[in-house]
Structure of Gfo/Idh/MocA family oxidoreductase:
Amino acid sequence: MVDDLKLGLIGYGLRARSLSKVAHRPGEGSRITAVFDIDPDAGGQAPGELGDGVAVHNSLAGLLDDRIDAVLVASPDHLHEEHATAALDAGLTVYLEKPMAVTVEGCDQILAAARQSEGRLYLGHNMRHMPFVQEMKRLIDSGAIGEPKLAWCRHFVGHGGDFYFRDWHAERRATTGLLLQKGAHDIDVLHWLMGGYSEEVTAMGDLMVYGANPRRPAGDPGVPWRLDEEPLSTWPPSKLTELNPVVDVEDASMVLMGLDNGTLASYQQCHFTPDYWRSYTIIGTEGRIENLGDVAEGTVVNLWNQRHYGYAPADRVFPVHPEPGGHGGADERIMREFIRYASSGGPIETSPLAARNAVAAACAATASVRDGGAPKRVAPATDQDLAFFQR
């Protein structure tokens, strides 16, 4: 009989509630024993949902001093640096939600804290655990398309207005931009599938639709949305009202990336499309793969590895079977891996260095958007971080 890993949870809204469902498994290896949220009303809901044994703290220091084994950082993005570095400095194993931080400097501070504490830092890039992404990775690694050379991701964010323009996600101060906040997932996956990191980017984007929608008055918090509830699904996007008082991020963006291994990738994001899913295409020297669907049953990865004139059905079709739970079972998979890693170490699918480089590429791309599409170099990781996190 193994004692449960005692987890602290920083943040108790949005993504945190989804994490709590897969992390709080009393008697099965892990349990959440302490919660802290900067909003006391949010944190106060934890005992009713997780059990009376959960302590609610009114300070970060109180949570970190509560004899926990590891901590899940699921606070708003602009607080990741503060909360993750404090937890690492306290000697705790850290699960840090993506994006790692909202600036490259913030990421590098977190990496430095992990180095100095020799702590275990795990990044919540759960897309690496999505079944369709893992199938694409398997096909690439098996040589099914030869050597990968080109990639693109089209990201249709169908509920963008309902989710990302009603609260702090709509503000640069809290996110840098949605190209970072939402796109860090996909940039990380593109890097992973292509086997390299972006070193130069150019991008264009704009606030094309939601710039004219009515806002709430300053100081009005509105009704918070939750990931475990259905969105408002207002349609068309022009009818969406009560947006966040400040909306200064882009609702559409397109990025071109030159990777350090000579490959090319692109990422396109739209927050006012009617559908909500991701489409990846990877082209190699001997074929291409493309997913149809992502987290729903019926998802497939198509492979073309013969010559065709015009459109042709795939030469081979690989069915993907999403598992129960959030993000096609990826939430369950990533939390199982984290609990094992926090308990006993071992190999992991995610990477602090890769998470940092996804943020760096997104920051450079956002800067390019706001500078008329001017090419931007992506800030590389330090030699110290390379040596520590690649070992």
